[in-house]
Amino acid sequence: MKPVEFKHQNVVFAKDQPEYQPLPALKLDSPQGEVIACWKMDWKERLKVLITGRVWVSLLSFNKPLTPSYVTVYRKEVFSAPEDSLTNIQRLSQWMRSRQVRWGFKKSKHSPVSVP
User: Fold this and answer.
1) Of these four, 6, 9, 55, 114, which has the most CB atoms within 10 Å of its CB?
2) Is the pTM of this model over 0.70?
3) Quick one: which of 71, 74, 90 has its CA closest to 82?
4) Do residues 76 and 34 touch, judged by C-beta distance below 8 A?
5) How far apart are CA 116 and CA 108, in angstroms?
6) Are 41 and 34 contacting, i.e. CB atoms less than 8 angstroms apart?
7) Segment 28-86, tens digit of pLDDT
């Protein structure tokens, strides 16, 4: 598994530390100081999880009390984004606007042909 960049990230931990892999993350300004990262599996890892249903997590505590951790496949379980409240039609409309796709059909320069 590798950490991947994502739309809402606002920091990259260990960016200039060659001994560590950079970790793109979303650091929330909350009393708990939540940090959220997104990881992507290659096809072999996906197959392994499909068969075993298991994911192993290793955390460094530096011999201090372990901080609470949470692993999920659902982004909305760890943070919500403004677009989460949009309906599917609103999402589709936003997507079409971002690609300059228009609803409807272009008017033809020719007059319609009537069929008997």
Assistant:
1) 9
2) no
3) 90
4) no
5) 21
6) no
7) 998 989 999 999 999 999 999 999 999 999 988 899 998 889 999 888 888 888 777 77
Q: How far apart are CA 57 and CA 67, in angstroms?
A: 13
- Report the alpha-carbon distance of residue 114 to residue 116 in Å, rounded: 6
Cβ–Cβ under 8 Å, residues 66 and 57: no
* Assigned token pair, 101: 């796709």
Token pair recorded at residue 116: 């008997």
CA–CA separation, 28 vs 34, rounded Å? 5
Cα separation, 85 vs 94, in Å, equals 13
Residues 68 and 48: their CA atoms lie apart, in Å, by 26
SS3 content of the chain, % helix, strand, coil (to 5): 25, 15, 60
Place of tokens 């059909």: 105
| Exposed/middle/buried for residue 78 (C-beta within 10 Å: 0-12, 13-18, 19+) | middle
What phi and psi values does residue 77 have, to the nearest 5 degrees?
Answer: -80, -20
